[in-house]
Amino acid sequence: MVGTEKRYENRFLGRKVKNTYVVKELEPERRIVYETTGKSAVSVRSEFVWEKVEQGTRVTIYIDGKGRGVLKLIPQKVLEAAFSEELRNTLERLRKQMESDRD
């Protein structure tokens, strides 16, 4: 539902990072857009798009973000590389979980 908030805490670059995401746009079973609130450690806009394809479902993720506070001092390229690695690891864990649920 648009307006729904989700609090999220993890470790990023060795630091505990807290973020609150708000659903900004929603097309059920097709697309969702989240943005962080002003209280978050990073300013992020994430868009997830699901598309039915012959093999199943294609998920496309668009992410745009910038550090706030102390993270603002870290070069953007370093943040991008660290975030990309975190995202790859998260998606790999999700893939393994989904495959194990099928068995």
Based on CA inertia axes, which overall geometry fits? globular
* Classification by helices and strands: alpha+beta
Are there runs of 5+ residues with pLDDT below 50, and where? none
Total of helices: 1
Kindly report the average pLDDT value: 84
Helix percent band: 25-40%
This entry's quaternary arrangement is: single chain
Please give the order of strands in the largest beta sheet.
Answer: 1-2-3-4-5
N/C terminus separation: 32 Å
Computed Rg: 15 Å
Strand content: over 45%
Structure overview:
This protein is α+β, with helices and mostly antiparallel strands and 103 residues long. The protein has one domain (5-102). It is 26% helix and 50% strand. It contains one helix and five strands, in the order E-E-E-E-E-H. The chain has a five-stranded antiparallel beta sheet with strand order 1-2-3-4-5. A hairpin with a 5-residue loop joins strand 3 (31-36) and strand 4 (42-53). The protein is globular. The mean pLDDT is 84.
Topology at a glance:
Blueprint (H helix, E strand, L loop, with lengths): L4 E8 L2 E13 L3 E6 L5 E12 L2 E12 L8 H27 L1
Antiparallel strand pairs: 1-2, 2-3, 3-4, 4-5
Q: What tags apply to this protein structure?
A:
103 residues, alpha+beta, 5-stranded antiparallel sheet, 26% helix
Summarize the structure.
This protein is 26% helix and 50% strand. The chain has 103 residues and is of the alpha+beta class.
